[in-house]
UniProtKB/TrEMBL annotation:
GO terms for biological process: carbohydrate metabolic process. InterPro entries: GH, Glyco_hydro_13_N, Glyco_hydro_b, Ig-like_fold, Ig_E-set, Pullul_strch, Pullul_strch_C, Pullulanase_N2. This is Glycosyl hydrolase family 13 catalytic domain-containing protein. Residues 100-212 form the Pullulanase N2 domain. Residues 219-304 form the Glycoside hydrolase family 13 N-terminal domain.
Length: 996
């Protein structure tokens, strides 16, 4: 079949000639027809922190692309709505069925942004997808239904669910129409003038009516009984479904092909018990909007709990089977580390492969996988035990579900020659060239490219086929719990790696095309989260997310979830997940759901910004309005394990500490990187501007240290008494948003962007010593560790970890991501980082890597580890560092070096407990009645005097007195004058012991 003729097209290619995402390839362009191939952008086209760029109301850093293949009949190419409109504005799109601009929102209403005047509107349907736009209108229909225009507005519940179309006009579907069967067809709505001329036509988006008619709460996936195995699949638009049963994980012919029966959108089949342990795929016959054809899609089960290697087939695995449970698994809840309050949490972020891929104390057969965490005497486990004994509570694992771009079968991997790379100069570009040459064929990827959410990743298992991955994942969780660490999973429900009817990594979009993925006004997939945004505002998407979370909590006994790009998920969905988890009990589920912690990235950008698709789980939405309101009203006085709180990352503290943002100039300095005190050559502005920048940064940090509470009152650098919510970022957004301290996750570095040591090495002047850079690394970490709220640490920051200044190491292989738990090296200067995301900064990076004075010695690494352990010990030495409620922080936390006359570069915080002369406070700490912490970012010693702190009996914390850091021991307090002396680039903790 030929390509549909589109008259008089004018199309400009100039906008793509210099695009950083040059992934559109134009195969044929004429004045009458054209076709465009589209290349699927990878998740990796943007780092997660690049989404924060959008949250700062700055321009999108790169154009979006669609992942729609071209169909012979209709154009399905461009996904950027504004760009598409600009390029084709001169074309009359009469009969444009390539787009889906109308919405069937419930059984009786279709919404469309058209004015038909005195004309008519019709719904066309073709079961065999034969609708064609011609000069005379639409042809090829089986059914034509006249719609009645409604002079009113869309129903309130429709507007609430789809606020982005609230101004669309409603058209009534007449009663008696067989809607359920129509939804299995290719559909279009057409407006026709009174004279019979077709003036507009478009396809339809169906999630609203599918939710209205087919929302379902019954069983899905594989259900096992003593006699049978039953399969249930929600697919209301499918025309026919068969299941292919296989004995083997790949190859061979099916042992059975069985048709499924449909009841109200749910297809099911009941098979023999002998199916257990077999593999299966679904064959789904369904109209697909990507190709405008009725396609035969081969798909895995969206509710898969097991897979063959690389997700070729779904495994029929019964997670309740004793053979895939390690010994004592059912009683693991009784062995969980104690957790008294969410405020007691501290989090350590780690990638499974990083942990052991280069640890030679781990058996080579299990390096880089789940079982490495069961190697009790490995260097990595010994390191984790040190952190746990100092107080660390939670280990956050980067994605562990089935993701794309790492083959599950290790024999398929390619490797670099480590010895040859080690022999190259430290600033050479050859290392990155060799690494990137095989980066899609090695064993490394962060994993933010989900294929199936509910199955452990096969590449981390010793055998990716069968149930091995389930057993080994459970052994990992059990082993970590037994050394005292709770386990957090990084979940990525905001997008999927694949879409369309035929891609190997597409699952959900094959089963119910156009439902699971969020679409633009034109019907193209939204890609603001990288690619293939999911739509949790749709009932069955939300249900799948909640069901998946419960599976990981109950069947794998994990202790928390970190939601990637949580702001792209609806707040309602997050609350349902939270409530579902909190309903879990040891007696009924073997899990205490009240102690499962949920947090995520609450950035507000893309199509969901400002509640564009409903109330989303952004920072201000989850911490404001009705959530947590009870705390500010003192109805509920403890934030111990609240069912009403969700928790988000505090990017304000990160940016104030290190300077700028991930999207500004890489030399922009901050509080700990030398702003004002040690210029690095970057033009920050006039002296007065720089001083104000430093003062504002100190305000931001102090607000964050007080739990980022929006109602916490402090004195600003201008001398005004302000609330945390009245302190503003550079774009006018409030710094503070929390109502409870554990709502805030404080961090200065994470897997995204440069490591802490790298960013300090980049932003500080080149002529300072490595000793000074190490002290700044410790200073930044100390602010996170000693603040109110939940501290979050990137694995390796305590070891001065470097990625050779790579700002986005998601696919940079083991070479740039290496961890060394022997403390011999921090991986600094192992070559210029990969060209793709770093080349623009190579002129800054190259001289630093080439300078041997930048490289820490083993003694520096050992000192950094000790300093970090001491920070944890001090945090857990007193409950005053872990206050649980807003009231406790309001009453006890004060900042002293504030106002216009404050000492620049110095933050002084006190935390007060009940003591003589201070009635009204409840005693929390049996050891200390008062704590003062001074953070000095200056390159010189600073003395600070406060009349409010006179006559106290303060001494340097015993842990610091006994530490190997000789500099901190010069810290001093003079009770007579209330003066503190703090050494350069040092955090000094003073405590007042209780009288015995």
């Amino acid at each position: 079949m030929g390509i549909t003729k589109i008259p008089s097209i004018s199309f400009s290619l100039s906008s793509y000639s210099s695009s950083p995402l040059s992934s559109l390839f134009f195969s044929t362009i004429t004045n009458s027809s054209y076709s465009i191939k589209s290349f699927h952008p990878r998740h990796s086209n943007r780092t997660h922190s690049e989404f924060q760029f959008l949250s700062l109301n700055q321009p999108n850093p790169s154009p979006k692309l669609i992942n729609k293949p071209l169909n012979n009949k209709f154009l399905h190419c461009l996904t950027d709505v504004s760009m598409a409109a600009e390029e084709v504005s001169s074309v009359d799109f009469q009969g444009d069925l390539s787009r889906s601009r109308a919405y069937w929102v419930n059984e009786s209403v279709i919404a469309w942004d058209v004015d038909i005047g005195d004309g008519s509107c019709y719904l066309y349907a073709s079961e065999t997808a034969n609708l064609v736009a011609t000069g005379n209108g639409i042809e090829g229909d089986d059914i034509k239904v006249k719609l009645e225009p409604d002079s009113g507005c869309l129903p309130a519940d429709v507007i609430e669910k789809f606020p982005h179309i609230q101004h669309y006009k409603p058209f009534k579907v007449p009663p008696g129409v067989d809607t359920k069967n129509l939804l299995k067809c290719q559909l279009a709505v057409v407006s026709i003038q009174a004279d019979g001329q077709c003036i507009n036509a478009t396809g339809l988006q169906l999630p609203g009516v599918l939710d209205d008619l087919f929302s379902y709460g019954g069983p899905l996936g594989a259900v096992f009984s003593e006699e049978a195995v039953s399969l249930y699949l929600w697919a209301p638009t499918a025309q026919a479904i068969r299941v292919h049963i296989y004995r083997d994980p790949c190859g061979g012919s099916p042992i059975e092909i069985v048709g499924l029966d449909e009841v109200n959108g749910v297809w099911s089949v009941h098979g023999p018990k002998s199916w257990e342990g077999c593999y299966y795929v679904y064959e789904v016959s369904v109209y697909h909007y990507c190709t405008s054809l009725v396609e035969t899609c081969i798909a895995n089960d969206p509710y898969a709990r097991g897979l063959s290697a690389d997700g070729k087939r779904t495994l029929l695995v019964n997670l309740s089977c004793d053979s895939i449970k390690p010994g004592g698994w059912d009683m693991l809840s009784d062995e969980k580390p104690e957790l008294s309050s969410f405020s007691d949490i501290s989090i350590y972020e780690l990638h499974i492969r990083d942990f052991s891929a280069n640890d030679h104390t781990v058996n080579p057969d299990i390096q880089g996988g789940y079982l490495a965490f069961t190697s009790e005497d490995s260097a990595g486990i010994r390191h984790l035990k040190k952190l746990q004994s100092a107080g660390l509570t939670h280990l956050h694992l980067l994605p562990t579900f089935q993701f794309a771009d790492v083959a599950d079968e290790k024999e398929k991997w390619k490797f670099v020659d480590v010895e040859s790379l080690a022999a190259l100069p430290p600033d050479s570009d050859e290392q990155q060239a060799q690494v990137t040459a095989i980066q899609d064929e090695d064993g490394f990827n962060w994993g933010y490219n989900p294929v199936l959410w509910g199955v452990p990743k096969g590449s981390y298992a010793t055998n990716p086929n069968g149930s091995c991955r389930t057993l080994e994942f459970r052994k990992m969780v059990q082993s970590l719990n037994r050394i005292g660490l709770r386990v957090v999973l990084d979940v990525v429900y905001n997008h999927l790696h694949g879409s369309g009817p035929h891609g190997d990594n597409s699952v959900l979009d094959k089963v119910v095309p156009g439902y699971y993925l969020r679409r633009s006004f034109d019907g193209y997939i939204e890609n603001s989260t990288c690619v293939n945004n999911t739509a949790s505002e749709h009932f069955m998407v939300e249900r799948l997310i909640v069901d998946d979370i419960l599976c990981w909590a109950v069947d794998y006994k994990v202790d928390g979830f970190r939601f990637d790009l949580m702001g792209h998920i609806m707040k309602r969905t997050m609350l349902k997940a939270q409530n579902a988890l909190r309903s879990l009990t040891k007696d009924q589920s073997g899990v205490d759901g009240t102690k499962i912690y949920i947090y995520g990235e609450g950035w507000d950008f893309g199509e969901v910004a400002k509640n564009g698709r409903g109330v989303n789980a952004s920072q201000f939405n989850i911490c404001g309005t009705s959530i947590g309101r009870q705390y500010s009203q003192n109805i509920f006085t403890s934030c111990v394990f609240s069912s009403k709180c969700l928790f988000s990352f505090n990017d304000r503290m990160r940016d104030a500490l290190i300077g700028g943002s991930p999207f500004g100039h890489p030399l922009q300095q901050g509080f700990v990187t030398g702003l004002s005190f040690q210029p690095n050559g970057h033009d920050h502005g006039a002296k007065i501007v720089v001083e104000k920048m430093l003062s504002a940064s100190q305000d931001h940090i102090q607000v964050a240290m007080a739990g980022n509470l929006r109602d916490f009152v402090l004195t600003s650098h201008q001398g005004e008494e302000v609330k945390g919510s009245e302190v503003l970022t550079h774009d006018g957004s409030p710094v503070a948003y929390a109502l409870c301290p554990s709502e805030t996750v404080n961090y200065v570095s994470a897997h995204d962007n440069e490591t802490l040591f790298d960013i300090i090495s980049l932003k500080t002047p080149m002529d300072i010593s490595v000793d000074e850079r190490c002290r700044l690394n410790h200073l930044a970490t100390s602010i996170i560790a000693l603040s109110q709220g939940v501290p979050f640490f990137h694995c390796g920051d305590e070891m001065l970890r470097s990625k050779s200044l790579d700002r986005d190491s998601y696919n940079s292989g083991d070479w740039f991501n290496r961890l060394d738990f022997s403390y011999e090296t921090n991986n600094w200067a192992v070559g210029l980082p990969p060209k793709g995301k770093n080349e623009r900064s190579w002129p800054l990076i190259k001289p630093r890597l080439a300078d041997p004075s930048f490289k820490p010695k083993k003694s520096h690494i050992l000192a950094a580890v000790e300093n970090y352990l001491n920070l944890l010990r001090m945090r857990y030495s007193s409950p005053l560092f872990r206050l649980r409620t807003e009231n406790e922080i309001q009453e006890r936390v004060r900042f002293h070096n504030t106002g216009p006359s404050s000492v620049p570069g110095l933050i002084v915080m006190s935390i007060e407990d009940s003591h003589k002369g201070r009635p009204g406070l409840t005693q929390l700490d049996p050891n200390y009645s008062y704590i003062v912490v001074a953070f000095n970012a200056n390159p010189r010693e600073v003395t600070f005097t406060s009349p409010a702190l006179r006559t106290r009996t303060l001494d340097l914390h015993p842990i610091q007195l006994m530490s190997g850091d000789e500099v901190v021991k010069y810290s001093n307090y003079n009770a007579f004058t209330g003066s503190f002396t703090v050494p350069p680039r040092t955090t000094s903790v003073f405590v007042e012991s209780r009288e015995i």
